[in-house]
């Protein structure tokens, strides 16, 4: 099962970075991307039990938050992936997670996700292409969040 990995240094403490990244509606929104909470978490708005919908590039992801450990870790599972027109896409998502590691001068964020493209015969060939595109998206989101946090937004 392919694993995507993106990494970003933030010039801020883990608590500030976690607050910025776990505010899903703000973190997962921007040019060509929109996120909204479909259900708040069990004990915290963006925590475990939260369900979010992410729309980007003609795709709609519905994700469940399955772990929330401020200020070090949160994880999600993609419940469904479809085109904006509602056509389901053959992806099986094992888990996505962000780990925040305190380092000298700030925080290192490691974002990983594991998935499979479930298309007979072609799935293993398509997976590296899909993974590369998703990794670039992760890198863009993390870099944008680092700039926002540095600017005090």
> What is the CATH homology-level superfamily?
START domain
List the quaternary state of the chains. Answer: single chain
**Bulk shape:** globular
Q: If helices are DSSP runs of H or I spanning 4 or more residues, what is the number of helices?
A: 3
Order of helices and strands: EHHEEEEEEH
Span between termini: 37 Å
| CATH architecture tag | 2-Layer Sandwich
Helix content: 25-40%
What is the CATH topology descriptor?
Alpha-D-Glucose-1,6-Bisphosphate, Chain A, domain 4
Number of spatially distinct domains: 1
Strand content: 35-45%
Tell me about the largest β-sheet. 7 strands, antiparallel
> Given the helix and strand composition, which structural class is it?
alpha+beta
Mean pLDDT, all residues: 92
**Computed Rg:** 15 Å
Uncertain spans? none
Name of the level-1 CATH class: Alpha Beta
How many extended strands? 7
Strand order of the largest sheet: 1-7-6-5-4-3-2
Account of the protein in words:
This protein has about 150 residues and is α+β, with helices and mostly antiparallel strands. The chain has a single domain (about 5-150), classed as Alpha-D-Glucose-1,6-Bisphosphate, Chain A, domain 4, CATH 3.30.530. Helices cover about 25% and strands about 45% of the residues. The protein is built from 3 helices and 7 strands. A 7-stranded antiparallel β-sheet has the order 1-7-6-5-4-3-2. The longest helix has 28 residues, at about 125-150. The chain is globular. The termini are far apart.
């Amino acid at each position: 099962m392919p694993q995507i990995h993106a990494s970003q240094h933030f010039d801020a403490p883990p608590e500030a970075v976690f607050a910025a990244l776990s505010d899903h509606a703000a973190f997962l929104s921007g040019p060509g991307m929109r996120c909204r909470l479909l259900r708040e978490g069990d004990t915290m708005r963006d925590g475990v039990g939260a369900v979010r919908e992410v729309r980007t590039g003609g795709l709609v992801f519905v994700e469940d938050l399955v772990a929330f450990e401020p200020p070090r870790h949160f994880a999600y599972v993609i419940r469904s992936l479809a085109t904006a027109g509602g056509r389901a896409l053959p992806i099986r998502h094992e888990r996505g997670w962000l780990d925040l590691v305190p380092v000298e001068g700030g925080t290192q964020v490691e974002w990983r996700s594991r998935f499979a493209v479930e298309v007979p015969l072609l799935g293993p060939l398509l997976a590296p292409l899909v993974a590369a595109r998703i990794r670039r998206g992760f890198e863009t989101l993390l870099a944008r969040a680092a700039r926002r946090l540095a600017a005090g937004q």
